[in-house]
Amino acid sequence: MARKALKLASWTGAALAASGFYLYSNKYLDPNDFGAVRVGRAVATTAVISYDYLTSLRSVPYGSEEYLQLRSKIHDLFVSFDDTPLGAASLAQVHKAVLRDGRTVAVKVQHPKVQSQSSKDILLMEVLVLAVKQLFPEFEFMWLVDEAKKNLPLELDFLNEGRNAEKVAQMLKDFDFLKVPRIYWELSTKRVLLMEFVDGGQVNDRDYMERNKIDVNEISRHLGKMYSEMIFVNGFVHCDPHPGNVLVRKCPGTGKAEVVLLDHGLYQVLTDEFRLDYCRLWQSLIWTDMEKVKKYSQRLGAGGLYPLFACMLTARSWDSVNRGIGQAPVTATEDAEIRNNAANYLPQISQLLNHVPRQMLLLFKTNDLLRGIEAALGTRASASSFLNMSRCCVRALAAHKKKNSRSLFRRTQISFREAFNLWQINLHELILRVKGLRLASWVLALLCRLLPTSY
């Protein structure tokens, strides 16, 4: 026991020394590295999976009951089953297979030791967080442990993932550009999930989109609409939109661009109070109402750190927030400024993350991942994304007011106001498009004048 304790103490000391050296000596820190739940996810999913569980399904000598049961019935259930996984992560791996009735399916299989290892990982994380607290009192990371305890068991229950998939598919059924793979419940368990197989390219793969004639800007608009609806209108948010979980393709039936949303294990359910305050905050940020930015940031737990809170939400500098985040795109200079200043604000970031509502942590992660996709597509901070967000905020706030109004006249008044606000947004979007067309025409005319007409 003493030897184990000594080993753990040595490992903890080495880890803390290495991380401390990195945090304080690296001059080019990416602020995204400190995204609240990115850190939490990295820690919470650090399960020690042995090599034989990561190679192929058939090589596993031991495992959960469901895992072994599926393995023993492979030839009964499937015409073919690819041993090489399509993808493997710390919790599970996915295999392509064909059922006896001809359906092509994706089989998601949980690694055998994850269930038993997860509680040990959380305990170890708690020990490390307490050790960090002792060495660096200004850093508050207990929220990491709280989030891991709450979210990891949900991610390990694949039946919960299936229910989430069906709920979001129903919730966003009016979006004809969204595809959520169908779940095959008769062959699914807590540790094995069978779903419709859907192929496509990763959402950050511009080459794939060019080869398949998929409009990058259209995909970016689709993502913005989808997530704005989830966050502001429904309060039920898919919180792991990394490129491996968001595919794009041409729909086989219509030929239109389609977004495929995978991996529904991690969702955040927002309370109405939080969701509406978040709506009001984003409206204030979009329309540059700084008094309300302060008011709603503080209502969401930011306190006196509301400028930092606004910068973390938007990934923009405080100067850009004051000028209007929709007025100008992110520049390389601004990105460099944020990177260079990130390390200086680590204690304040830690304090802020410890005080905001727990619901905010996964939204930080979601915003971070979506911005990464937009950066890869070259559509980051476009005006259209902010306009889509504003539409959803207007609709959500109007729906709340109508729900709490007993007067028919008052509900009618709210509906007219909602329609007028949406009309204003549409008009603003039209003006931006006309300006864009005029600019394009002006550039084309200039090029025609500058280029020689004959050789």
Mind explaining what this structure looks like?
Strands 1, 2, 3, 4 and 6 form a five-stranded antiparallel β-sheet that branches. Strands 5-10-9-7 form a four-stranded mixed β-sheet, covered by helices on one side. The chain has a two-stranded antiparallel ribbon with strand order 8-11. Residues 1-62 have low confidence and may be disordered. With 455 residues, it is an alpha+beta fold. It is globular and about 65 Å long. The protein starts with a helix and ends in a 5-residue tail after the last helix. The protein contains 19 helices and eleven strands. The protein has helices at 2-25, 36-44, 51-55, 65-72, 74-77, 114-135, 142-155, 158-171, 206-211, 216-234, 272-286, 290-299, 306-314, 318-323, 332-342, 346-355, 358-377, 383-403, 408-450, and strands at residues 78-81, 87-88, 92-99, 104-110, 178-179, 192-196, 201-202, 236-238, 246-250, 257-261, 267-269. α6 packs antiparallel against α7 (142-155) and α18 (383-403) packs antiparallel against α19 (408-450).
Indicate the topology.
Elements lengths: L1 H24 L10 H9 L6 H5 L9 H8 L1 H4 E4 L5 E2 L3 E8 L4 E7 L3 H22 L6 H14 L2 H14 L6 E2 L12 E5 L4 E2 L3 H6 L4 H19 L1 E3 L7 E5 L6 E5 L5 E3 L2 H15 L3 H10 L6 H9 L3 H6 L8 H11 L3 H10 L2 H20 L5 H21 L4 H43 L5
Parallel strand pairs: 5-10
Antiparallel strand pairs: 1-3, 2-3, 3-4, 4-6, 7-9, 8-11, 9-10
Helix pairs in contact: 2-7, 6-7, 10-17, 10-18, 11-12, 11-18, 12-13, 18-19
